[in-house]
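ok new one. same drill as before - structure tokens go in, u give me an amino acid for every spot. 168 of them this time. try not to just spam alanines like last time pls lmao
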């Protein structure tokens, strides 16, 4: 787990809300506080969709919304003259990316034992922090997944020109 402070907030918000950078990430949760708090739990309710679309989502194993599915709603809540009091977005690394990361780094884990790798963006009092985290379905003392994921996040931010400083 690492904590990174995003140092160029305006640039990050443009990347988050207007570009496709995070579109493929499943949303674990989202909340935005302006005059009230808007919350999204990230769960995908396939019963809402027509049977063909619901079946397609089930075949793909989709249980979470993707950021691209809710980005425009979040943008409509955030935009305006006043900055939100706070917001929190928790993204999960897509399953395929997690599998690739484990394989590329020859980590001693089976993908079925990984619940997820998470990006937790939290804005409050004019400060935006990104906290990384991993969750396993098994107990292990091995922290190699944490170290590899943390480095992958740093590289992802650098590649997408998202400025940050490490917090201790």
């Amino acid at each position: 787990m690492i904590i990174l402070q995003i140092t160029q907030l305006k640039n990050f918000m443009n990347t988050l809300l207007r570009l496709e950078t995070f579109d493929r990430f499943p949303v674990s949760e989202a909340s935005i506080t302006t005059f009230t708090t808007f919350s999204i739990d990230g769960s995908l309710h396939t019963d809402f969709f027509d049977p063909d679309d619901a079946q397609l989502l089930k075949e793909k194993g989709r249980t979470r919304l993707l950021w691209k599915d809710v980005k425009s709603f979040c943008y409509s809540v955030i935009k305006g003259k006043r900055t939100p009091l706070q917001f929190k977005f928790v993204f999960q690394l897509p399953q395929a990316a997690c599998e690739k990361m484990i394989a590329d780094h020859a980590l001693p884990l089976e993908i079925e034992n990984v619940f997820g790798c998470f990006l937790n963006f939290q804005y409050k009092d004019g400060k935006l922090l990104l906290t990384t985290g991993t969750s396993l379905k098994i107990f292990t003392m091995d922290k190699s997944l944490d170290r590899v994921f943390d480095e992958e996040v740093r590289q992802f931010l650098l590649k997408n020109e998202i400025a940050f400083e490490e917090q201790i």
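The radius of gyration is 17 Å. and btw The chain has a mean pLDDT of 95.
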